[in-house]
Design brief:
By secondary structure, this protein is mainly alpha-helical. It folds into 2 domains: about 1-60, Multidrug-efflux Transporter Regulator, Chain: A, Domain 2 (Orthogonal Bundle); about 75-128. Helix content is about 75%, strand content about 10%. The chain contains 5 helices and 3 strands, in the order βααββααα. The chain has helices at about 5-15, 15-25, 40-55, 60-70, 75-125, and strands spanning about 5, 30-35, 35-40. A 3-stranded antiparallel β-sheet has the order 1-3-2. Strand 2 (about 30-35) and strand 3 form a beta hairpin. Helix 1 crosses helix 2 (about 15-25) and helix 4 packs antiparallel against helix 5. The chain is elongated and about 80 Å long. Keywords: Coiled coil, DNA-binding. GO terms for molecular function: DNA binding; DNA-binding transcription factor activity. InterPro entries: DNA-bd_dom_put_sf (IPR009061), MerR-type_HTH_dom (IPR000551), MerR_fam (IPR047057). This is MerR family transcriptional regulator. It comes from Photobacterium ganghwense.
């Protein structure tokens, strides 16, 4: 079975070992121990990848933990409905952010065009 050291995971995901230990402290990762050495399994590596992706997408650690707990347990109808609710809420937030980003990108493009036009006009006046 493939195992990983904390330093290997930190290097692969470009994060600190302190961050990985923090995720362990809050219950998101559960490495095995060999004495004082943490030994991470493929499951831990996958979870770390999901944690980092979730954070980039705006999920809180509490939301990530809740999703992991729902995944780890026998999923009742209530749990599945809760998971769908979390997914729907996050999807709505991300769609709003995407729309906001699109508006800002258009505004930036307009501002860029105005600046380029003003610079060109300024150069033309100086050339005369």
């Amino acid at each position: 079975m493939e195992t990983f050291k904390i330093s290997e995971l930190a290097k692969e995901f470009d994060i600190t070992t302190r961050s990985i230990r923090f995720y362990e402290d809050v219950g998101l990762l559960q490495p095995q121990r060999q004495g004082s050495i943490r030994v991470y399994q493929r499951r831990d590596k996958t979870r770390l990848k999901l944690i980092l992706r979730g954070k980039r997408l705006g999920f809180s650690l509490a939301e990530i933990k809740e999703l992991f707990e729902l995944y780890d347990t026998k999923q009742s109808q209530t749990q599945l409905n809760k998971m769908l609710s979390i997914i729907d809420d996050k999807e709505a937030v991300l769609k709003r952010q995407l729309e906001d980003i699109s508006v800002v990108m258009n505004e930036l493009q307009t501002a860029r065009e105005r600046c380029v036009q003003a610079l060109n006009e300024h150069r033309e006046r100086k050339a005369l």
